[in-house]
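Entry 14. Ran structure prediction on the chain below.
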Amino acid sequence: MTHAVPTRTTSTGARTGGTGTGRDTSGRRTPDVFGARTHLLAKWAMPLAIGLVYGYWAASVRRHGGPITGWNLLFGFMTVLAFALLWYAVRAVADRLPREGHAVLWGAFAGSALGFLYSGSGVAMFTCVLVSLLLAAAVTAGLYYHYATHQDAEEARAARHRTLTRTT
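Output, structure tokens:
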């Protein structure tokens, strides 16, 4: 007796599930919920939004619980500008690097960002550097693992697809 292999489908019969690469298990593209315009907006708005939180945090650390002044606001907005510009620069450079360089660059960015905030609190410089290096190492290791496992899986799928197309 032969049994059919079940596939994951929606109530309309559309195939679902995926591999995280925009393709389902059969190699076809999965539908994108958001359009290209939404992705472009998020690509440019996310660093600015995170930068606003970072700038507020930096300004509040710098004033040490004192009153908000004009110089404090200026410092916060300049921090937002610097953070967002550095994020855009790191993203532009990191996309052109291999996975090791990509992970190291984002790790260095995260460690530097934490180091800047932590140094404003008045702790010893050794402590600030140590904590920043620990965060940079953790981010680098995590991103390297992520990129290595996902790129290896994508390369294996592409190789399997090439061999299947050659045999047919």
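The mean pLDDT is 83. Will compare against last week's run tomorrow.
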